[in-house]
Amino acid sequence: MLKQYKPKKCYKCGKTFYKNKDESIDRWVKRKYCSRECSDIHRRGTEKTPIIKNCAVCGKEMTKKYDESWKRWNKKKFCSRDCQTKGTNYKAPSTAFKKGNKPHNFKADGYGYNAVHQWVNRHYKKSGVCEKCGKAGKTQWANISGNYERSIDDFSELCYSCHTKMDKANPKRPKMKGSVL
């Protein structure tokens, strides 16, 4: 048989409250308030006035939540994601480089080796047939001139074997660090 606990009256608001099923007996014995808000108000001595802001787009009132940090609350301008995307004064963070704040892999003279290869892979599909020997199988995009321009005319689709032979014969090929060739 379950033991019945006597209901208590809140010290602050006078509301009657009961023991929760998952609440320990020690906690129930010490408990004086019906909610956390009543406890906080009683400890401070005055009722806390809600902090209110208006949404920058729709004008709807927003109140600071109890568990919301002040740092987050101070940055908050919109009531929802919909308002954030509709916001007239809202601009998405710029991806352009800010003066003096360039990424570690920025190349002042243009784009790099990997960027050009990624561009070719994105814009052109491989046929799976080597342009030099005609062998079907796995192929790679091989740069012809060594200048790595963003043009399909500067690339040919070769099998691994033909690609390696072409790179060894190409005098303009850039030397990679640790290369034994």
What does this structure look like?
The chain has a two-stranded antiparallel ribbon. The chain has a two-stranded antiparallel sheet with strand order 3-4. A two-stranded antiparallel ribbon has the order 5-6. With 181 residues, it is an alpha+beta fold. 27% of the residues lie in helices and 11% in strands. The N and C termini lie far apart (86 Å). It is built from 6 helices and 6 strands. Strand 3 (52-54) and strand 4 form a beta hairpin.
List the helices and strands and how they pair.
Layout lengths: L7 E2 L6 E2 L7 H6 L5 H9 L7 E3 L6 E3 L6 H6 L5 H6 L26 H11 L15 E5 L11 E5 H10 L12
Antiparallel strand pairs: 1-2, 3-4, 5-6
Q: What are the main properties of this structure?
A:
181 residues; alpha+beta; 3 domains; two-stranded antiparallel sheet; two-stranded antiparallel ribbon; 27% helix; disordered C terminus
Q: Which structural class best describes the helix and strand composition?
A: alpha+beta
What's the β-strand tally? Answer: 6
Largest sheet: 2 strands, antiparallel
What percentage of the residues does DSSP assign to strands (E)? 5-15%
Query: Could you say how many structural domains there are in total?
Result: 3
Apparent shape: elongated
Rg, Å, rounded: 34 Å
Q: Uncertain regions: pLDDT < 50 for 5+ in a row?
A: 176-181
Roughly what percent helix?
Answer: 25-40%
How large is the count of helical segments? 6
List SSEs in N-to-C order.
EEHHEEHHHEEH
Q: Determine the N-to-C terminus distance.
A: 86 Å
- Arithmetic mean pLDDT: 79
Please state how the strands of the largest beta sheet are arranged side by side: 1-2
